[in-house]
Design a protein that fits this description.
Elements lengths: L6 E2 L19 H11 L7 H17 L6 E2 L10 E5 L6 E5 H20 L12 H9 L5 H5 L3 H10 L1 H4 L33 E2 L1 H32 L1 E2 L2 E2 H14 L2
Parallel strand pairs: 1-2, 3-5
Antiparallel strand pairs: 3-4, 6-7
Helix pairs in contact: 1-2, 2-8, 3-8, 4-8
Length: 256
């Protein structure tokens, strides 16, 4: 099921110019485009719909993480070795670029949050979904504009962010030229050089945090937009929610 979590756009393509012949048979777009209409079908059980809905929620979030839009070379940064400084211990750890964007930056946000909040001696400041959600929503965007964007636009946004995500400047560098990345096919790269593995500094981390927050916000808005459309088309005893809304509007206008 790994393929469903990614959408691959090999350079120099964008989602609009990506040839059908090099598209993956199964990818994130498969889930995003095909699951919503299935969720209103009576022939599927509640359990089946719950599984599909969970995949939809997960994958919509995934494609807003820039490295889930792959370049066809390094498995979305999973094969790109980097060094990360643990914010709590200051110990430099070996990891990969994908893990940094899936986990490490969030962990850094949590560390900064706890560090700036005063609590009683011996207590720990809790940081979870609510706290992070409040943080993300503190800089709101226009919901209608963000949620109405085409899915292909989501992919292209993430691809363009590669220039911020890859420590060498992203889209301006050929994936095969990165000495710190191996290749997904050969599991190696003739240019791979352990001595060239970069250490992500504080400037990289602080520059990445606003990107993470905005991508999470956009993912939430767009998922909400999908759920709204599913609800509007869901049958309610032979009707749809849209039918009921129109009927209520007609009654309201009649009584004015």
């Amino acid at each position: 099921f790994t393929a469903f979590h990614f959408f691959v756009i090999p350079p120099p393509f964008t989602s609009a110019t990506l040839a059908a012949s090099i598209r993956a048979v199964r990818d994130a777009d498969t889930i995003i485009s095909q699951v919503p209409p299935l969720l209103t079908q009576a022939k599927l059980s509640r359990e089946q719909k719950m599984i599909l809905f969970r995949y939809l929620v997960h994958v919509v979030g995934d494609v807003h993480q820039p490295l889930h839009i792959g370049n066809g070379f390094d498995r979305g940064g999973n094969l790109c070795s980097v060094k990360w400084t643990n914010p709590a211990t200051k110990i430099i750890e070996d990891t990969n670029l994908h893990t940094v964007w899936d986990e490490k930056i969030i962990e850094n946000i949590a560390y900064d949050f706890r560090k700036t909040i005063t609590v009683a001696v011996g207590e720990k400041r809790w940081f979870g979904y609510k706290e992070f959600g409040d943080m993300v929503l503190s800089d709101p965007q226009d919901f209608a504009t963000v949620s109405s964007a085409k899915v292909s636009d989501w992919f292209d946004e993430s691809q363009r962010l590669h220039k911020e995500v890859y420590p060498d400047g992203g889209v301006s560098v050929k994936p095969s030229e990165r000495a710190y990345c191996k290749a997904q096919d050969e599991k190696t790269n003739s240019k791979f050089d352990v001595s060239k593995i970069p250490t992500l500094d504080s400037a990289y981390v602080q520059g990445s945090i606003p990107i993470v927050k905005k991508r999470v916000l956009f993912a939430g808005y767009r998922l909400a937009g999908i759920i709204n459309k599913i609800a509007e088309s869901a049958p309610l005893k032979g009707r749809t929610l849209t039918d009921d809304m129109r009927a209520l509007e007609a009654i309201t206008l009649k009584n004015q």
